[in-house]
Structure formats: structure tokens, C-alpha cells
Design a protein that fits this description.
There is one protein chain. With about 80 residues, the chain is of the alpha+beta class. The protein has one domain (about 1-75): GIY-YIG endonuclease (3-Layer(aba) Sandwich). It has three helices and three strands; from the N terminus they run ββαβαα. It has a three-stranded antiparallel sheet, sandwiched between helices. The mean pLDDT is about 95.
Length: about 80
Amino acid sequence: MYFVYAIKSEKDGRIYVGICADIEVRLKEHNAGKTKSTKGFVPWRLIYKEESETRIEARKREIYLKSGVGKEFLKSLVP
């Protein structure tokens, strides 16, 4: 089981999209500064998640959410 997730930076409002097997552990890694691409923008909060059966399905959804249309969808979820 894989998850596609989106987190939002409390520092500047940017949105990061990724995939993982354990969302709680992954969010802690982001907030601990262990991820190079997100460490400068901590703290992060989870704004979206969805489950996928396979990594391939999760990756396809991740690519969609990183697109312009996908980012607009994510932005519409949070004020």
C-alpha cells in the first residue's frame, strides 16, 4: 500500500507532493529537516492524502498532482 500526499509549508505556503508507505513517518522526516528539498521551509502540515494499491498507481497520481491542474486542485483545498 502506498500513499500520495501533499503537505503545505507553514513558513511560506508552498505545497510539496510525494509518495510514501507511511505518512506519519514521512511527515516527521520532512519536519525534522531530513529531506533536502523541504528542509528550508519547515514546519509542514498534511493537507491531502490518498491511498494506492501499487507504487505505479501512486506515481501516476503524484505526477498529476504536481501538474498545473493538480496544484490548483490542492490549493483549492486550503485557505
